[in-house]
Design brief:
The complex is a heterodimer of chains A (188) and B (88). By secondary structure, chain A is mainly α. Chain A folds into two domains: 72 residues, Rna Polymerase Sigma Factor, Chain: A (Orthogonal Bundle); 104 residues, no CATH class. Helix content of chain A is 65%, strand content 0%. In chain A, helix 1 packs across helix 3. Chain B is built from four helices and no strands. In chain B, helix 1 packs across helix 2, helix 1 packs parallel to helix 3 and helix 2 packs across helix 3. The N and C termini of chain B lie far apart (70 Å). With 88 residues, chain B is an all-alpha fold. Chain B has a domain of 59 residues. The chains are: A mainly alpha (188), B mainly alpha (88). At the A-B interface, helix 1, helix 2, helix 5 and helix 8 of A face helix 1, helix 3 and helix 4 of B. Chain A: One of its GO terms (molecular function) is DNA binding. Chain A: InterPro entries: RNA_pol_sigma-24-rel, RNA_pol_sigma-70-like, RNA_pol_sigma-70_dom, RNA_pol_sigma70_r2, RNA_pol_sigma70_r4_t2, RNA_pol_sigma_r2, RNA_pol_sigma_r3/r4-like, WH-like_DNA-bd_sf. Chain A: Keywords: DNA-binding, Sigma factor, Transcription, Transcription regulation. Chain A: Pfam families: Sigma70_r2, Sigma70_r4_2.
Chain lengths: 188, 88
Amino acid sequence: MTYELSTPDQWLELYGDALYRYAITRVRDPDLAADLLQDTLLAALKAKDNFMGQASEQTWLTGILKHKMIDFFRKSSREKTDTMGDEVADYKNDSFFDEKGSWRVDLSVWSKPDKALEQEEFLAVLQRCVDKLPQKMSQVFILRELDGMESEEICDVMAISSLNNFWVMLSRARVQLRHCLDMNWFNQ
Amino acid sequence: MLTCKEASFLASKEMDGTLSWREKMALRLHVGMCDMCRRYLRDLKRLRVMMRRAGIVGQTLLPTTATLSEKARERIKQALNNAAQFHK
């Protein structure tokens, strides 16, 4: 039995923006996100006869996009292998801790109720803070925290040479993010 | 005795892997005595909850006002039409 799918034009109409947001949250670059969206819809067009209707159309398309994105990360992270080293190396020059390893910044109490954290307004601040991280660091953070991908899989996809480097990278990301949220949301 | 920097690293590592028994004890000991790190640890967990929630709800941090540009939309429409002709 065959399942009724919308036409590719309708895919773009119905899910284009949602898929675009999915892509740009993870790759950050608008042109690149649009390219990934185009690749996804073209791949979907080719594969539409295999669509069995177990998932919604949008879930099916998002799944294809996710594959395209992981492929992209795999390729691009293997092209520039030296960036990882740089990001770990400057861990020593840390603006968040003094030379004795104590906090240099103040950690304010997050007093706003968690309910407030569901607002789009808060998500926008979070997005801006994630965007301030170095590119690879933010991509790793998103894969880990937004997508819940396992540590080993992220190391493989992003060509991170050791779990220790991965932990160092994420630890830095979290210190920076927490501070950014302090400054821009909790402690305004 | 751990420094705050070391403690912050272990607190983060615990979220992505497993700590050795020794690391775990060292972290608990430090956090037991350090208000800042206790707060840090708690907020990391909250940050995780917020991110996962956003991941499940919309799979994005962006507001729905973030949309594909008209130019990109036209380009993709064109590419789809060309490919659709080809597949007929």
